[in-house]
User: Which sequence fits this backbone?
């Protein structure tokens, strides 16, 4: 009895740790997006500082590709939109994961109690 | 086995405190390290900004270029005002040094915000850590004693409070410039006791005096500022009054310093008169005066070259204009009372400004330099109706009468017009003798006068004059030159 519960518990714990990993992954990805958002915001603001006389380049691989200033601005705004979308997506994902992990924790705690009981019983029996 | 399970074991309160405390300490540490990082970066940006400031000072710099990992070689840094800036996210922009500085300052602002945020959070967490530590201090003992200890702590806290008060003055001083604030600060602050205790009352007394001195200085400064403000206001009034006085002087000028000012004024009428006459032949002189008084300074400049010219007697036109001046002087003298009336309306520079704008009705830019405006008016006058033409002709007649000889005068005018625009010569002849309503007639004599006024600078009038003369013969047929000279000579002789 105790053995079975222990096995189950182990499996659950593994799942749970996997979930925690996912959460941390999501968090780090989100953080990355956050930094990118900040960076792109800065880029946008600094692009606004420039005028038509300035040439704008985008580093693509090893080469600097000349770009139109307006085009660059449009690209950056698009990118900002995309990043914002991504952040929202990750936010939802993280919330979901949080909920799941919460449930999982409950399951785990109940399992643990069961296991303890079983062990106690076993000990008592012994 | 159980210990491995996360969160399965309900943690004891002190342990959670520890954990939280550790976590908070971690956060504080993290904040501090990040602040360190930002400070370093901002230092880098500072140096970069300084470099960018001085970089475009020279066209090129001699530098040693790193050549591979080991070698350097002498080189030159060129295009010092061209910088390729990485904006982030692999975006680059070619910018001038100035723009680069703008970008740098933009980033500095961002970093400052970041630093402020970090320091705020760090402070926040530090306070919490302190609180947690206090809690820890309580919790290690048994539950029974906790209450007693709390009492003791309270006393300690009270003691701390006292210490803090004395200690806090030095800290708070630079921030607050008012004593009241200082006191309030002392009362308010209860947290920063740790470092406060070390500083003693002796210091605080000194500080107090220093503070007092500072406040005194501040007061003085404020007083001075107030005074300055007042004086500034006064100055403003003064200037206005001065200008108005100047105006009055201008009014009085015809009688006061007639020689210097009158010609300056009349120099304008010479070109300005037509538009005025166009409007209202009677108010001609008054308006001229008003228009002229405003720019007296400029005209006095412009007039001198003319004077010189007159002295040299190279241009009969100018001579004639002088006559005209005299005539106008006399006119003005006659009408002086009237003109005074009109002028008294102008009490401030604003009025003059308005007048000026009015004079150049429809002109969008009333501030154009007077010389320019004059030339423009000339062009206007060339377009204007017969009244102006008639006026001009009248003047010309006067000039003729002075020049004694009609034939010579016409000759001279021909010579001048040819100088200015040789191609237009035939037109002149025709229009001049046919009718005065012809616009071309007006245009040509005026430009001939305008260049003298506009081009000749106050510093080297004669030289420029000569230049003009020199240039003109180049364009004009060579035959004209000798003719002219003879005319001048004749005119001079006649004058004598």
Assistant:
């Amino acid at each position: 009895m105790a053995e079975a519960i222990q096995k189950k518990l182990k499996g659950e714990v593994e799942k749970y740790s996997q979930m925690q990993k996912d959460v941390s992954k999501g968090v780090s990805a989100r953080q990355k997006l956050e930094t990118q958002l900040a960076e792109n915001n800065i880029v946008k603001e600094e692009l606004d500082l420039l005028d038509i006389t300035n040439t704008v380049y985008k580093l693509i691989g090893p080469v600097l590709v000349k770009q139109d200033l307006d085009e660059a601005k449009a690209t950056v705004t698009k990118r900002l939109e995309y990043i914002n979308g991504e952040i929202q997506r990750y936010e939802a994902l993280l919330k979901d994961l949080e909920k799941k992990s919460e449930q999982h924790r409950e399951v785990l705690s109940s399992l643990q109690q069961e296991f303890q009981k079983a062990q106690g019983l076993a000990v008592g029996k012994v | 086995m159980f210990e491995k399970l996360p969160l399965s074991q309900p943690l004891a309160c002190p342990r959670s405190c520890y954990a939280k405390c550790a976590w908070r300490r971690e956060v504080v540490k993290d904040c501090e390290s990040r602040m360190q990082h930002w400070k370093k970066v901002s230092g880098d940006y500072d140096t970069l900004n300084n470099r960018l400031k001085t970089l475009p000072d020279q066209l090129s710099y001699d530098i040693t270029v790193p050549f591979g990992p080991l070698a350097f070689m002498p080189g030159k840094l060129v295009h010092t005002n061209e910088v390729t800036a990485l904006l982030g996210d692999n975006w680059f922009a070619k910018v001038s040094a100035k723009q680069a500085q703008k970008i740098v300052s933009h980033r500095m602002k961002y970093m400052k915000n970041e630093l402020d945020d970090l320091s705020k959070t760090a402070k926040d967490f530090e306070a919490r850590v302190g609180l947690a530590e206090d809690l820890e201090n309580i919790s290690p003992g048994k539950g029974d004693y906790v209450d007693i200890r709390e009492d003791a702590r309270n006393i300690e806290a009270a003691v701390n409070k006292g210490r803090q008060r004395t200690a806090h003055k030095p800290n708070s001083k630079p921030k607050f410039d008012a004593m009241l604030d200082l006191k309030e600060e002392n009362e308010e602050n209860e947290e920063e006791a740790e470092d406060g205790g070390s500083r003693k009352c002796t210091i605080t007394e000194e500080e107090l005096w220093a503070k007092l001195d500072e406040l005194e200085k501040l007061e003085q400064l404020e007083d001075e500022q107030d005074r300055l403000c007042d004086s500034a206001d006064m100055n403003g009034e003064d200037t206005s009054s001065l200008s108005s006085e100047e105006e009055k002087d201008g009014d009085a000028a015809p009688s006061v310093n007639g020689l210097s000012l009158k010609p300056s004024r009349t120099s304008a009428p010479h070109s300005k008169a037509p538009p005025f006459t166009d409007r209202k032949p009677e108010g001609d002189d008054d308006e001229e005066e008003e228009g002229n008084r405003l720019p007296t300074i400029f005209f006095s400049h412009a007039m001198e070259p003319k004077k010189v010219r007159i002295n040299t007697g190279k241009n009969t036109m100018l001579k004639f204009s002088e006559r005209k001046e005299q005539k106008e002087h006399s006119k003005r003298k006659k009408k002086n009372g009237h003109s005074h009336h009109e002028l008294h309306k102008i009490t401030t520079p604003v009025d003059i400004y308005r007048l000026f704008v009015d004079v150049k009705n429809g002109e969008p830019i009333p501030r154009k330099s007077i010389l320019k405006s004059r030339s423009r008016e000339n062009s206007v006058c060339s377009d204007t109706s017969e009244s102006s033409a008639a006026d001009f002709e009248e003047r010309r007649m006067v000039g003729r009468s002075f020049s004694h000889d009609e034939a010579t005068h016409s000759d001279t005018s021909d010579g001048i017009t040819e100088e200015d625009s040789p191609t237009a010569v035939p037109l002149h002849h025709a229009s001049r003798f046919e009718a005065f309503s012809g616009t071309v007639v007006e245009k040509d004599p005026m430009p001939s006068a305008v260049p003298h006024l506009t081009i000749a600078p106050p510093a080297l009038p004669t030289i420029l004059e000569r230049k003009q003369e020199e240039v003109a013969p180049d364009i004009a047929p060579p035959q004209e030159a000798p003719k002219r000279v003879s005319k001048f000579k004749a005119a001079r002789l006649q004058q004598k």
